[in-house]
Amino acid sequence: MATAILNHKLDACWRITAGAWLMLVAITFSGYAPYLNHGDWTLAGVLADICGINLAEEGIIGALALLASWLLMLAAMMGPVAFSSLKHNQKISYMAVLGYAIIWSVVGIALHGFGYVLQLAARNSDWFYFNGWSIGASTLLIIGLFQFSRLKSAPTSICSLCRAGVSQSQFTLGLRHGVDCARCCGLLMCLMFVFFPGNLFWMAIITVLILLDRGMFGLPALRQEIGVALIVAACTLTVAQSI
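User: That's the sequence. What structure does it adopt?
Assistant: Structure tokens below.
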């Protein structure tokens, strides 16, 4: 009986992931596509002014729309990682999902806030206005180096808690799982701000990187290999802009 309930929940979760991708496709080909564009950190200068939604002009409604699109992309891209923990917890509930979403909402707000500060800096600095690509290169370098850090390779606490059957509220479980996922994959999600934001192809590429990074579905965990690739990409971008 418990196995049947768990399988039903897993099926529902995968339907959520598939539905999120379908909604992203629909939005991409609609008039709301700009809300998927969360800013290009390689263009934080001359072209940054025409990228995405201007939060100062859109106000609260625009900010909420960006947050909603961020959570939609989260469901599509992080769904396989988030839902994989269900096999360790048969009592997962909507409260756990709420806790998970709250953590990633905070991450999204922080990233968008940082991006908005970058745009303001670009408008007040002549050098930064014409060399905003350095933010993209620096981001790639930082993410690549983080792949080799102890914090990145530290085991997640959520899975050990679930396997041990530690009693805790579902909301707390979701919060802890969100923190674990943000620690492991938060910087990789920053890649969405580096190149071609809002592009479905690059969303899929980043999703594959996250799956390879976490060693999902029996695949090897290629954390260091991904780190090397990102460092090379940062160097390539720097050289390309210097020529």
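Residues 1-6, 46-53, 158-166 have pLDDT under 50 and may be disordered.
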